[in-house]
């Protein structure tokens, strides 16, 4: 396993919610990353963001790690949830909120402090 894969694995296993994105949660640098940030912020989810634009190894490494070609990528409790389209569809259907509740991230639609 490469050093970048080990870093990614450590991050997704040690943080309940992780978003690998273009830009930062405070300053997303693409529309897709911005949409996922808006959804997580709307739900009040506490998450750790990683800017793949700041590190070429991370930008390629996250794609290799999941065999998923695009960023952003959302992880909940070590599991890859999906990219922007999947997260948006799950949010609109209520599936994302249910998933976050099942994982103990939110309760009744509100983030757990």
What features would you highlight for this structure?
single chain; 113 residues; alpha+beta; Glutaredoxin; two-stranded antiparallel ribbon
Summarize the structure.
Helix content is 48%, strand content 19%. The chain has 113 residues and is α+β, with helices and mostly antiparallel strands.
What does this entry look like structurally?
- It contains five helices and six strands.
- The relative contact order is 0.18.
- The strands form two sheets. It has a four-stranded mixed sheet, with helices on both faces.
- It is an alpha+beta fold.
- Strand 1, helix 2 and strand 2 form a beta-alpha-beta unit.
- The protein has a single domain, classed as Glutaredoxin (3-Layer(aba) Sandwich).
- Helix 2 runs parallel beside helix 4.
Could you outline the blueprint of secondary structure elements for this entry?
Layout: H1 3-14, E1 17-21, H2 31-43, E2 48-51, H3 56-66, E3 73-76, E4 79-82, H4 84-93, H5 95-102, E5 106-107, E6 110-111
Parallel strand pairs: 1-2
Antiparallel strand pairs: 1-3, 3-4, 5-6
Q: Predict the CATH topology.
A: Glutaredoxin
End-to-end gap: 35 Å
Globally, the shape reads globular
The secondary structure category is alpha+beta
Oligomer: single chain
CATH superfamily: Glutaredoxin
Low-confidence stretches: none
Strand content: 15-25%
- Counting DSSP E segments of at least 2 residues, the number of strands comes to 6
Give the radius of gyration: 13 Å
Number of domains: 1
User: Count of helical segments?
Assistant: 5
Name the strands of the widest sheet in spatial order: 2-1-3-4
């Amino acid at each position: 396993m490469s050093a970048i894969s080990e870093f990614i694995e450590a991050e997704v296993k040690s943080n309940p919610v992780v978003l690998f994105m273009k830009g930062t949660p405070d300053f997303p640098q693409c529309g897709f990353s911005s949409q996922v940030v808006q959804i997580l912020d709307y739900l009040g989810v506490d998450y750790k963001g990683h800017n793949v634009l700041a590190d070429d190894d991370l930008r390629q490494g996250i794609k290799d790690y999941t065999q998923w070609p695009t960023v952003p990528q959302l992880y909940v409790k070590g599991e890859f949830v999906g990219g922007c389209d999947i997260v948006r569809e799950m949010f609109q259907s209520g599936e994302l909120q249910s998933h976050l509740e099942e994982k103990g991230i939110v309760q009744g639609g509100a983030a757990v402090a």
